[in-house]
Amino acid sequence: xxxxxxxxxxxxxxxxxxxxxxxxxxxxxxxxxxxxxxxxxxxxxxxxxxxxxxxxxxxxxxxxxxxxxxxxxxxxxxxxxxxxxxxxxxxxxxxxxxxxxxxxxxxxxxxxxxxxxxxxxxxxxxxxxxxxxxxxxxxxxxxxxxxxxxxxxxxxxxxxxxxxxxxxxxxxxxxxxxxxxxxxxxxxxxxxxxxxxxxxxxxxxxxxxxxxxxxxxxxxxxxxxxxxxxxxxxxxxxxxxxxxxxxxxxxxxxxxxxxxxxxxxxxxxxxxxxxxxxxxxxxxxxxxxxxxxxxxxxxxxxxxxxxxxxxxxxxxxxxxxxxxxxxxxxxxxxxxxxxxxxxxxxxxxxxxxxxxxxxxxxxxxxxxxxxx
Length: 372
Ligand code: UD1
What we know:
Blueprint: E1 5-11, H1 14-29, E2 34-40, H2 47-56, E3 64-65, H3 73-91, E4 95-99, H4 103-114, E5 119-122, H5 134-145, E6 148-151, H6 154-162, E7 170-172, H7 176-184, H8 190-196, E8 204-208, H9 212-215, H10 218-231, E9 236-240, H11 243-251, H12 255-259, E10 264-267, H13 272-281, E11 284-287, H14 291-299, E12 303-305, H15 314-317, E13 321-323, H16 328-339, H17 356-368
Parallel strand pairs: 1-2, 1-4, 2-3, 4-5, 5-6, 6-7, 8-9, 8-11, 9-10, 11-12, 12-13
Helix pairs in contact: 1-2, 1-7, 1-17, 3-4, 4-5, 10-16
Uridine-diphosphate-N-acetylglucosamine binds next to helix 1, helix 5 and helix 11.
């Protein structure tokens, strides 16, 4: 008899949900061998940043919600650690699964490692080599402590080996965020989103922006807003605002400039299906998100990333992504270039095929299953 594998999965912030949803579905297929639970740290808590994703991704409600909310990095990390330690001591899982690179990922990894509970990290090995990004710190710490490192691309394997991680711990399994994208693609409703934003048949560009490096410093964010003011003369912009970005527009006094632009359509944060529908119907995407660089590569939509670096170089080498930084002149000229018909075509990276969760469950069971 094989003892059921007790897997505790951690989510905290918006980009985690689509990475864990396919795992939860896959565990359910092996309910005779796996007992899976879901813990939400509460790092993201708004309906639009959290609840709606559970509904659309058909995820079970979290078994535990730590309800930590927002705070400084230290505050948020510490609150998660205190809450998570209690849960681990009570639940005693065989393994925890953490995904991505948010504060919740790192905080829960630290706690589990001190309690000698094995850690599997989904999306391991990505590196921007830019330690000014909080996510890079989260990635480095998580991968230094994880026992099972599940990667989305061969460059991630190379990064981990260079850092001294033993090859037996590294498993190239593909991309669970793309599992979700491919599974939900039939439900995309581009026409519905066009009518909601009053776009008729007009071409439009989809915008997302939330990185501290783009929105926290007034001069930088102002420059980007001026670039958008020019670009909306060429193509309509659709821009759902992350709460951090909305706060920063107000703090820097940029909201009146943005509100005055006739061809820029802002909204509250959008649900998963609404944003992927819009992305798939757009002419191009302007973003600083990590996941969006991957999603546009799979959808074949040109993506201009307003960053100097990316932890996802495969989207540049094989996909439709281009790194352009945040200089206003360059943002405008690169957009013009795409509108003139010069966009990258790209191809699908290996194992971005909708089966990553299946591979992950195979790795977990073959590594951790024990006789009773
Ligand atoms: C976090 C992740 C980032 C990820 C992003 C996706 C870290 C270090 N950063 O950044 O990698 O790309 O999520 O969204 O973990 N807020 C709300 N409602 C919410 C959540 C946040 O209003 O439900 C506001 C609060 O003002 C908060 C701010 O957004 O202070 C930032 O939230 P936080 O969780 O600290 O980081 P994000 O910028 O969302």
